[in-house]
UniProtKB/TrEMBL annotation, chain C:
<feature type="transmembrane region" description="Helical">
    <location>
        <begin position="118"/>
        <end position="140"/>
    </location>
</feature>
<feature type="domain" description="ABC transmembrane type-1">
    <location>
        <begin position="80"/>
        <end position="286"/>
    </location>
</feature>
<feature type="transmembrane region" description="Helical">
    <location>
        <begin position="267"/>
        <end position="289"/>
    </location>
</feature>
<dbReference type="Pfam" id="PF00528">
    <property type="entry name" value="BPD_transp_1"/>
</dbReference>
<dbReference type="InterPro" id="IPR000515">
    <property type="entry name" value="MetI-like"/>
</dbReference>
<feature type="transmembrane region" description="Helical">
    <location>
        <begin position="86"/>
        <end position="106"/>
    </location>
</feature>
<keyword id="KW-1003">Cell membrane</keyword>
<keyword id="KW-0472">Membrane</keyword>
<protein>
    <submittedName>
        <fullName>ABC transporter permease subunit</fullName>
    </submittedName>
</protein>
<feature type="transmembrane region" description="Helical">
    <location>
        <begin position="223"/>
        <end position="247"/>
    </location>
</feature>
<feature type="transmembrane region" description="Helical">
    <location>
        <begin position="160"/>
        <end position="185"/>
    </location>
</feature>
<dbReference type="InterPro" id="IPR035906">
    <property type="entry name" value="MetI-like_sf"/>
</dbReference>
<comment type="similarity">
    <text>Belongs to the binding-protein-dependent transport system permease family. CysTW subfamily.</text>
</comment>
<keyword id="KW-1133">Transmembrane helix</keyword>
<keyword id="KW-0812">Transmembrane</keyword>
<feature type="transmembrane region" description="Helical">
    <location>
        <begin position="25"/>
        <end position="45"/>
    </location>
</feature>
<keyword id="KW-0813">Transport</keyword>
Amino acid sequence: MARLTFSRTRVRPGRGLVLAAAAVYFLVPLAASVVFSVDSGDHVTFGAYSQILGTEGFTDSLLLSLELAVTTIVLVLLLMVPAMVALRLGASKLRSVVAVVCSLPLVVPPIAFVAGISTVLKWGPEYLSRTPLFQTIVAIQNENYPFVLVLAYVVMALPFVYQALDAGLRAVDVRTLVEAARSCGASWPQALVRAVLPNLRGALLNASFLTLALVLGEFTVSHLLGYQPFAVWIVDISGAQAQMSVAVSVLSLLVTWVLLLALAAVGGRRTPSRTAP
Amino acid sequence: MTLTAPENEKTAKAGAATVEFRGLRRQFGNSVALDGLDLTVRPGELLALLGPSGCGKTTALRMLAGFEHPDSGEVLVDDVDVTDVPAHRRDAGMVFQSYSLFPHLSALDNVAFGLRMRKVGTAQRRARAAELLDLVGLADKGERFPHQLSGGQQQRIALARALALRPRVLLLDEPLSALDAKVRTTLREEIRRLQQELGITTLFVTHDQEEALSMADRVAVMRAGRVEQCSSPTELYSRPATAFVAEFVGTVSRIPGRMAAAEVAEALGSRVPVTGGAAPVGASVDVLVRPEAVELAPDPQGDGLVTSGAFLGATTRITVRLPEGYDVKADVPTRRAADFPAGARVAVTLPELPVVVAERTKG
Amino acid sequence: MTTALPRVDVAPVASAKRRRRAPGWLAVVPLLAFTAITFGLPALAMLNGAFTVKDQATGATSYSGENLSSSLQGAYLTALLGSVKLSAVSAAIATLFGLLLAQAVVTSRFRFLREAVLTASGVLANFGGVPLAFAFVATLGNSGVLTGRLGLKDAGFDLYSFWGLTLVYLYFLVPLMVLTITPALEGLRAQWREAAQNNGATHGQYWRHVALPVLTPSLLGGFVLLFGSAFAAYATAAAMVGSTVPLVTLQIADALSGNVLVGQENVALALSLDMVVVAGLVMAVYLPLQRRSSRWLA
């Protein structure tokens, strides 16, 4: 009852001003970018957009980014989901250890992380050239499929994935779910797959999306290790084809936004946490 | 931990305020929360607003506090129209359902909050807050923060805070509903004692009939934005004005009957006076009876068939199925309960006590 | 038939026992092993390299604090301070504006506006980087759409300056603040506002004495989070070629790729260590604040 607290409609000029300022600040650069990408001196041209597909490197870099994203998502979920569920079921001593481990990447900025990675990669030729480890180090740096990027992205995604899964697990009582499934005759793996995972659908989607956004937009690590996924490609062409780089930037922002809206629609919006009086 | 009021807290009963709601209407979208509410709270009394959720009781309370505004009608305190007075200038202390203490302030600072808003000096403020903490029996908990206090303690602090500015009216919005049963019982007794000692006019919203009946001087039963009946707890229970009140307060069973004459109904072979609900003479009605007003006797030729019994302590509540398909509940002393095993035949009779009638719902 | 039955009966019991013995931490081991290698190894390498000095002539290596001390001198120090200044200023502005925007959105009666702003914030806060830099170059860069039309150059505006970069950073910091502070604003209970009013507080007094103090841990926490995010940002600045603002991330990248001087890799590692220390301080401030605010607003 007390929830229905519409106070009398008041005019709130402050709020209108804030919203208007925000609209100007956030929409003008987007609009200006669109103008920039179609403006060719005295007439409008959509060349920058129509040529994107045909431009060298676009398909390769985008595909590379998508491949990296899919592998990263699979790997990070394989590592995190069993661990997080197990922590909910017991092994509570390790809970804080995992929490700390998963937030450590926040303390090490990507640029510092990549500095460390490139140092480790240099050990290969310097110290390990006669050991089998050398082959591994060479293999993960394969130009066509740099697995070393996946390793780095998994680490960088840990904090986000941890947050998303933790929030999802908080909302369901894993122990009861598992016990109920077990008492209905389900085996352990069945209980996990049939009872726990379906209830984590929202959290899994959320974690996957955050990881996807992270990988698609990632520039620092891939650039400094000398690979050319999507974000690096945009920067590389910007010198020669400024209009196209802007066009691709605008497109990628819009595509991500649409993806996120779709995800919100599929996964169901988070429920308001407010307790009704 | 007894709550006792020192002399200086007491308002002479003569000085207590009268509150009056006149024709209050309020609509939220399509749902009508208040549909012309008229109600007077007498000086110094504790009046409970009782009703199912959505009946508008909280809305009425919030209008007195100034958090809601009526679409039409007015709120008067001592014959002064306060409808347009903003919430922060109303002279009414309110205790909320739960979680209303400011989390960043200690218990003492929570109680002193209103005095700080009024720019009362620090020393005076702390002295008054300490006084109030003492009043609610938490003098030693002043430095604790809300999250370090139990639910019951939090509500005591909230009560102290509501009284800090010496309001003329005390408003209680289901203050006990978030507490567990035991704490609820002790706290409601203490709130009642404090209220009586202070002699402060109090409006108390609840959906718990036991709470309303045990604490209030008068109970107003609300339904769909209106007052259905407003009277003392005993009268409410023994002479309900309508079938809604009878069924909402306490337990009743429906028995098929007939209006034998004006204000006389006939059921199970007895003629009983009707005090609430009206029907034309000769009409078929349901007669509403309380379990303690139904008499059972073992009788192999009886109409009733015992279907179950529930042990309640001193009494046992027997459910009897009548031939028309009605279930009647009757309380018998537990020592006699063995006479009415499930499956036994019984005779059901009504003593000559006033009843309420309602439109026939079956067949 | 009869001989097969007992076996079927026994098997589940045995396996159930074995499963009960398999402890939960086994599921955590792969995660910990993975991070130990992919995260621990580079971190150790960085630490080791930051303290290692290589003699150019002999090729011999030794441990010393030389890299660290040179990372805190001259151009490197300027870059470090530049990063701190840019991050602090842009985080402070974003905290203020993000709070106002989030409050305007949270109290809005239009559900759609709320959803749209929150989703857009999610995109901009996580996806900033390169596209963001290009959007601003196209708008306010040397040949940007608005630069010429509004005569910004003559007015003294330069996108590649400190304030220009601040303007760009706000584009992902404000949404990040909106995301961070929205749960806190939603956690402000209606009862607190009403209890304050009931105790005679005006709207202004409610904000001064209740809402802002309750929000303070979240606001400070949000500020340090924003600071850390701005401090670590590299892509945006790198994509805006020609920027004159010295930043530590740009210095590390230059030193790593040997753009400036050969043999500066270990100074880059020392600079990285400086960054880790700053970011670690940020987290050390953030976590307790976060804990307090979640206790208040739970």
